[in-house]
């Protein structure tokens, strides 16, 4: 998607330019290599830590190569029932919230893509205004609490059901579909619902896949809604599980060195939990990355 | 950055015009009344009902709920509060030294992140643009987008582990013969940690839109510049940068708009009472006052103040940009 047209260098260049031509690519390659290394380093060090022994980490020996290699920490984390309960919660929340979000976003985007619809401008305005002004944390918290959504998946799914950016991407896609097909279907007596379900959606598989990815990655990664609205450990998603490990470690270290061993065990476990949380996303990342990029571009160009 | 980017005037008005023009072609030139519109398109409108309920309940009700900033609120009572108290809570926070402290911290972190995180994606995009080897370029891009897909909790975990006493930074310090530093507990280190991790998270993904803008630059312009004897550096300066200027300005306006809402979730995860002097920002203070201490009205008053500043900032930036360079969001 983001490939840039290469310019032809067929014309003879000046001497100075040729000189630059030799030096600059090297400098550029070095700089970009640094970008890659800096980006990858934290991943590498966490993976190394997850396989390392406690003592080796504590004495500061672990950077990107595991020291005192062992799988004990993995066994420890994976034998924790709470971890699996929370992991399952993450899956359930992600699927539920994504389904709700997709239904609402698709319906609204389809309506907004109809340029002849009376009141369309207002409908768009209602959505876009919320990009610049939101109610804020406290009124949202008060609302969700008073609706009785606490400790249920709806506290996560409903308040985040439509992401306006995703909405505009979908709207742009629907607008780009040829109108003739829909008109023909309408002439054949298909209702609006029928047109959406049988004509438009089958033509929109690419954008639907992109949106499902956008939403599911967001919900998979989210922690704050669950942190706010879930009171019981068996309802936490894995991100909150991880957050509690991190917070626990932070308190242990700030309390003093007497808790060192506790904090150190946590460093191991933290690393493993991070690896296990990120793993699903890293596994699909190479295959889905281009969808994200194309989605952003569609939103940027047409939005 | 996750917002529509357009350098054109508002979408709604001309589109409405087009819509009218199109509707007018087959039918006589006459606006449809609401009744006619409903009779014709009721199925479409019915599809909008649930989304509208969503917007009203979860977006506009909370906006209205900000009224508790001026009313006494009791947990369990009406979400709009029970009784008017006027500007009591506003006065309270204006006289609260902690508020001014967190206000200052918010501005500092906002300015620092803008200064660092706004230019970096542009530099990366320019470097990538000069990379002639396709596959290498694709690889660098794929890697640089990676942090964008991480949960902020994992990012926080990375930060805590790398800055830990046994972490990478202290390993380097040790190698240089320096005593270890407990970075995460020292207020004077918080800003550096925050801004550098922010840069790590955003630089790759932020370069996408610039790379897209770069592909739209007419290659004839480069050809002409070369014929005029412009070096590669001068081509970058006189052709490339002006070519991506609208994108730069649009993203700058959007960045300014989100300036006050500095990385709330990340700060909440990595700060602690020891680093409050530099790390505590408006949003984290609102969280602690409201959700933790149950002073809902007081926290709502501060939150509303923050939201209004954000709105004013984005409108101002937009106006200035429209006047000065003719590019604006709407």
UniProtKB/TrEMBL annotation, chain A:
One of its GO terms (cellular component) is plasma membrane. Keywords: Cell membrane, Membrane, Transmembrane, Transmembrane helix, Transport. This is Sugar ABC transporter permease. The chain crosses the membrane at residues 21-44, 91-111, 123-142, 154-174, 195-215, 267-288. The keyword Transferase does not apply. PROSITE patterns: ABC_TM1. Signal peptide: none annotated. Residues 87-285 form the ABC transmembrane type-1 domain. Belongs to the binding-protein-dependent transport system permease family. One of its GO terms (biological process) is transmembrane transport. It is a multi-pass membrane protein. It is found in: Cell membrane. Its main location: membrane.
UniProtKB/TrEMBL annotation, chain B:
GO terms for cellular component: plasma membrane. Keywords: Cell membrane, Membrane, Transmembrane, Transmembrane helix, Transport. It comes from the Bacteria. One of its GO terms (biological process) is transmembrane transport. Signal peptide: none annotated. The chain crosses the membrane at residues 42-61, 107-128, 149-169, 243-264, 296-315. It is found in: Cell membrane. The keyword Membrane applies. Residues 103-317 form the ABC transmembrane type-1 domain. SUPFAM superfamilies: MetI-like. Gene3D superfamilies: MetI-like. The keyword Cell membrane applies. Pfam families: BPD_transp_1. It is a multi-pass membrane protein. Belongs to the binding-protein-dependent transport system permease family. This is Sugar ABC transporter permease. It comes from Mangrovihabitans endophyticus.
């Amino acid at each position: 998607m983001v490939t840039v047209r290469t310019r032809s260098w067929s014309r003879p260049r000046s001497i100075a330019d040729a000189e630059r031509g030799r030096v600059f690519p090297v400098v550029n390659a070095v700089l970009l290599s640094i970008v890659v290394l800096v980006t990858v380093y934290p991943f590498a060090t966490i993976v190394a830590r997850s396989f390392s022994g406690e003592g080796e980490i504590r004495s500061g020996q672990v950077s990107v190569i595991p020291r005192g290699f062992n799988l004990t920490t993995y066994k420890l984390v994976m034998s924790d029932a709470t971890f699996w309960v929370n992991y399952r919660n993450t899956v359930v929340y992600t699927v539920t919230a994504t389904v709700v979000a997709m239904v609402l976003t698709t319906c609204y985007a389809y309506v907004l893509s109809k340029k002849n619809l009376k009141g369309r401008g207002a409908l768009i305005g209602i959505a876009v205004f919320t990009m610049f002004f939101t109610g804020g944390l406290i009124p949202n918290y008060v609302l969700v609490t008073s609706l009785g959504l606490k400790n249920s998946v709806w506290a996560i799914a409903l308040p985040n059901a439509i992401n306006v950016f995703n909405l505009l991407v979908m709207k742009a896609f629907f607008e780009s579909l040829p109108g003739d097909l829909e008109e023909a279907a309408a002439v054949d007596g298909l209702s609006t619902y029928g047109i959406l379900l049988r004509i438009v959606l089958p033509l929109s598989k690419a954008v639907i896949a992109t949106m499902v990815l956008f939403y599911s990655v967001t919900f998979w990664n989210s922690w704050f809604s669950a942190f706010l609205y879930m009171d019981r450990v068996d309802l936490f998603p894995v991100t909150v599980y991880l957050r509690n490990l991190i917070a626990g470690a932070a308190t242990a270290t700030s309390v003093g060195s007497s808790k060192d061993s506790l904090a150190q065990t946590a460093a191991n476990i933290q690393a493993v939990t991070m690896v296990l949380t990120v793993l699903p996303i890293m596994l699909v990342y190479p295959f889905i990355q281009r969808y994200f990029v194309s989605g952003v571009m569609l939103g940027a160009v047409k939005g | 950055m996750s917002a529509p980017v357009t350098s054109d005037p508002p979408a709604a008005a001309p589109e409405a015009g087009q819509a009218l023009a199109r509707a007018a072609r087959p039918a006589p030139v006459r606006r449809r009344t609401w009744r006619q519109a409903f009779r014709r398109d009721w199925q479409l409108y019915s599809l909008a009902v649930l989304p509208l309920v969503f917007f009203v309940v979860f977006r506009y009700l909370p906006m209205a709920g900000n009224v508790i900033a001026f009313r006494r609120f009791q947990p369990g009572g009406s979400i709009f509060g029970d009784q008017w108290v006027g500007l009591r809570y506003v006065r309270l926070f204006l006289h609260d030294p902690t508020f001014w402290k967190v206000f200052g911290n918010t501005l500092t972190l906002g300015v620092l992140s803008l200064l660092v995180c706004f230019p970096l994606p542009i530099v990366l995009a320019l470097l990538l643009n000069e990379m002639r080897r396709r596959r290498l370029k694709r690889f660098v891009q794929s890697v640089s987008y990676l942090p964008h897909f991480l949960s902020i909790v994992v990012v926080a975990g990375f930060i805590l582990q790398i800055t830990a006493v046994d972490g990478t930074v202290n390993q380097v310090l040790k190698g240089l013969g320096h005593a270890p530093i407990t970075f995460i507990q020292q207020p004077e280190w918080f800003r550096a940690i925050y801004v550098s991790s922010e840069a790590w998270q955003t630089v790759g993904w932020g370069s996408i839109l610039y790379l897209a803008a770069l592909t739209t630059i007419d290659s004839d312009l480069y050809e002409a510049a070369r014929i005029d004897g412009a070096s590669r550096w001068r081509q970058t300066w006189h052709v490339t940068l002006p070519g991506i200027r609208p994108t730069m300005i649009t993203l700058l306006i959007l960045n300014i708009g989100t300036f006050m809402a500095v990385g709330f979730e990340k700060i909440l995860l990595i700060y602690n009472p020891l680093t409050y002097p530099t790390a505590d920002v408006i949003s984290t203070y609102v969280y602690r006052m409201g959700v933790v201490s149950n002073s809902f009205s007081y926290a709502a008053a501060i939150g509303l103040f923050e939201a209004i500043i954000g709105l004013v900032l984005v409108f101002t930036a937009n106006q200035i940009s429209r006047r000065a360079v003719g590019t604006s969001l709407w």
